[in-house]
Design a protein that fits this description.
This protein has two domains: 3-255 and 457-478, Aldehyde Dehydrogenase, Chain A, domain 1 (3-Layer(aba) Sandwich); 259-439, 3-Layer(aba) Sandwich (Aldehyde Dehydrogenase, Chain A, domain 2), CATH 3.40.309.10. By secondary structure, it is of the alpha/beta class. Helix content is 38%, strand content 21%. α6 (159-171) links the parallel β7 (147-151) and β8 (174-178). Strands 14-15-16-13-12-17-18 form a seven-stranded mixed β-sheet, sandwiched between helices. The model has no long low-confidence stretch (mean pLDDT 97). α3 crosses α7. Residues 17-477 form the Aldehyde dehydrogenase domain. Pfam families: Aldedh. Belongs to the aldehyde dehydrogenase family. The active site is at 254.
Length: 482
């Protein structure tokens, strides 16, 4: 399809491209240069109610569609996404800013979830349970939970939708998606491809709005909705959990992180540095599993800091459409102000600025790749979710110390460990209070594995066979009189 065919300026409800009833619009701006891309409807609560009602009607027929039929549609959706990957990547880079090669990777990651969950739709098995009486038979079945709402973030505006929509639709649910205000275009493009793939009217709905509080409340409290899935900050996630609790909805929360990256003396230094760059600086550091704290064992601290600094200095800022660009813009000016404040206060508190530490001439939303050394646990920057291209280096002496320090946070999403000691791999991986641990690997996300955190980093899992369970109810059936 052509770019113009996937650039939609209407919301998508019940198989129709619609405007806001109130006539409101909101502009989508390219964060790299502030240029105008498109306008989409600013839907209100009444529009959201219409989307939920459409999803409820569609659910009654979609849940009866065979798993094989749902799988075929999801496979066609996957094919269309991969066939249009270049166009989708261009759209993603325009509205979000990340380098085009990263955008292409995200699009293909998005597609993989539709492929995976289409196949998993045919494997939602129940079980037979040995009975406690000869006259009964006990069994379980899995059924779709119902209408689902998804509130998705701007940092991965297409893959985060796929991680929610693919398992929901595969399970037999219908879904209403509220994309982030800054990045609604990828969601609308996905809906256009869903329509082309044969997804029936009402099964997927996209509500664009710049009224996140009132529309979000409707999506979380409407009694028709049986499940809420959210990716975003922990403070907002707590509010959403509270609203979902009003009607005891099932909820999946993928929330904030404060990822430690632990490098032991025996690690392969070059591998650790490469993993650190990959983990920290992709998407300009704007990911929930980006490393926030680099704990380097004292014996190799200086060597790691030197090599890491050399690699950070090579990173190029610029437009995502420039093939030499490694880091694009931050999403808005507030994001730049936040991380600059953290850096300046850390330096005032005694951190050593090795690289960067200021806005860049590439544009007002660009911040230089930054490296701070001699950071301590007491500094504000050690407890904040950075969401920017900032690395902080801490020194540690032994295994017990670093585990305690790494766990000393309310967050528990992802952690990274570099060591060649297999015993240490097991001990540290088991003792770290995180939902995911990368061992000698800085990139850990894929559709095959469960993604999610512990503590205040969320509840539930996305991806893998476990991702289907969050969109299904387990029903027990006792058959008597046998």
């Amino acid at each position: 399809m052509k770019f113009s065919e996937l650039l939609k300026e209407s919301a998508y409800i019940n198989g129709q491209w619609v405007d806001a009833k109130c006539g409101g619009k909101m502009e989508v701006i390219n964060p790299a240069d502030g240029s105008y891309i498109a306008s989409v409807p600013d839907l209100d609560v009444d529009d959201a109610k219409n989307a939920i009602a459409a999803a409820e009607v569609a659910f009654h027929s979609w849940k009866k569609t065979t798993a094989k039929a749902r799988a075929a549609i999801l496979r066609r959706w996957f094919d269309l996404i991969t066939e249009n990957a270049d166009v989708l990547a261009e759209l993603l880079t325009k509205e979000q800013g990340k380098p085009l090669r990263e955008a292409k990777g995200e699009v293909l990651s998005c597609a993989s979830f539709f492929e995976w969950f289409g196949e998993e739709a045919k494997r939602t098995y129940g079980e037979n349970i040995p009975s406690n009486m000869g006259s009964t038979r006990l069994l379980t079945i899995k059924q779709p939970i119902g209408v689902v709402t998804a509130i998705t973030p701007w940092n991965f505006p297409i893959s985060m939708i796929a991680r929610k929509a693919a398992p929901a639709i595969a399970a037999g649910c219908t879904i209403v998606i509220k994309p982030a205000e800054d990045t609604p275009l990828c969601a609308l493009a996905l809906a256009a491809l869903a329509e082309e793939a044969g997804v029936p009217a009402g099964v997927i709905n996209v509500v664009t709005t710049k009224r996140p509080i009132e529309v979000g409340r409707e999506l979380c409290t409407n009694p028709i909705v049986k499940k809420v899935s959210f990716t975003g900050s922990t403070p907002v996630g707590k509010i959403i959990l509270g609203m979902a609790a009003e009607t005891v909805k099932k909820a999946s929360m993928e929330l904030g992180g404060n990822a430690p990256f632990i490098v032991f003396d025996d690690a392969d230094l070059e591998s650790a540095v490469a993993g650190a760059i990959a983990s920290k600086y992709r998407n300009a550091g704007q990911t929930c599993i980006c490393t926030n704290r680099f704990y380097i064992q004292a014996g190799i601290y200086d060597a790691f800091a030197t090599r890491f600094k050399e690699e950070v200095e090579k990173l190029a800022l610029g437009s995502g459409f420039d093939s030499s660009t490694d880091i694009g813009p931050l999403i808005n000016n507030a994001a730049v102000d936040k991380i600059d404040g953290l850096v300046q206060r850390a330096v005032q508190e005694g951190a050593e600025l090795k690289v960067g530490g200021q806005r860049d001439a590439a544009g007002e939303r660009f911040y230089q790749p930054t490296l701070l050394a001699n950071v301590t646990d007491e500094m504000e920057i050690s407890q904040a979710e950075l969401f920017g291209p900032i690395s902080t280096l801490f020194s540690f002496e032994d295994e017990a110390e670093v585990i305690e320090r790494a766990n000393n946070t309310p967050f528990g999403l992802a952690a990274y460990v570099y060591t060649r000691d297999i015993g240490r791999v097991w001990r540290v991986s088991e003792d770290l209070e995180y939902g995911m641990v990368g061992v000698n690997e800085g990139l850990i996300s894929n559709e095959l594995a469960p993604f999610g955190g512990v503590k205040e980093s969320g509840v539930g899992r996305e991806g893998s066979k476990h991702g289907m369970d969050d969109y299904m109810e387990l029903k027990y059936i006792c058959m008597g009189g046998i």
